[in-house]
Amino acid sequence: MIRFENVGLRYGMGPEILRDVSFQIPERSFQFLSGPSGAGKTSLLRLLFLSLKPTRGLITVFGKERSQITRRDLPLIRRRIGIVFQDFRLLEHMTTYENVALPLRVRGRQEASYRSDVIELLKWVGLGERMHVLPPVLSGGEKQRAAIARALIEQPRILLADEPTGNVDPTLARRLLRLFIELNRLGTAVVIATHDLTLMEQVEARRMVLADGRLDIYD
Predict the structure, then answer these.
(1) Which residues, listed in sequence order, are joined to residue 208 by a DSSP beta bridge?
(2) pTM of the entire structure?
(3) Domain ranges of the chain
(4) In the prediction, which pLDDT does 219 show?
(5) Can you spell out the DSSP letters for 104-165?
(6) What is the pLDDT of residues 182-194, one digit of tens each?
(7) What is the mean pLDDT of the chain?
(8) Among the listed ranges 35-44, 94-103, 119-128, 163-172, which one has the minimum average pLDDT value?
């Protein structure tokens, strides 16, 4: 689905933070992205989500080169890529239900066409009883699951998660991991950026390790 070929990235006139990065994200695959703090994991996720352009190299997304994707086409392609941010980015004046439904509302869909889907998804992530609660009332784990549900509501072909277990206890981290594994089993490719070695040891998956701007892959 996604291919990087000799991709480099720098901010402004600074040094390259990613150098000659090459890899592929196949359909229905599961991989961890790890590396020390400041290694560029979040920047790599932003490149995958198409919110950044590479300084050099080639990125191909769903058969189309990044340089050929117009601003008009960008939202359509991003709908096929779900992302869970480390800081959740829930709107605090909206309920859990409203936050999850927001991407569909932005597209102009009528609530009657998606209400049952949102409710079903909230039940699947364990928030069926919390759908009418505002984010300030939710625990960290509940906010994380709401963010995951929002990323999934448009049924993306690939899900990117930036440190999804960084703010939860080990028990909840295992529960979230099971959620990602089940999602992958249903057909969505998953990329989890994490520094949690314990989490990675719980499932056999490809590991992509960033260090000093370069990427090593361990299948």
Answers:
(1) 33, 217
(2) 0.91
(3) 92-155
(4) 85
(5) HHHTT--HHHHHHHHHHHHHHTT-TTSTTS-GGGS-HHHHHHHHHHHHHTT--SEEEEESTT
(6) 999 999 999 999 9
(7) 92
(8) 163-172
CB 30, CB 205: distance < 8 Å: yes
**What CA–CA distance (Å, rounded) separates 184 from 37?**
27
Torsion, Cα of 49, 75, 25, 55 (10° steps): -50
Category of 111 on φ-ψ map: left (φ > 0), alpha (ψ -120 to 50) or beta: alpha
Residue pair 25/191 in contact (Cβ under 8 Å)? The answer is yes
As given in the structure block, the two tokens for residue 162 are 């930036």
User: Helical H runs in the chain?
Assistant: 41-48, 74-78, 96-106, 111-124, 140-152, 170-185, 197-200
User: What's the longest Cα–Cα distance across the chain?
Assistant: 51
Segment 44-99, tens digit of pLDDT: 999 999 999 999 999 999 999 999 999 899 988 999 999 998 888 999 999 999 99
Q: For residue 102, give Cα distances in angstroms to 118, 148, 154, 179.
A: 10, 13, 10, 22
Query: Which residues are 168's β-sheet partners?
Result: none
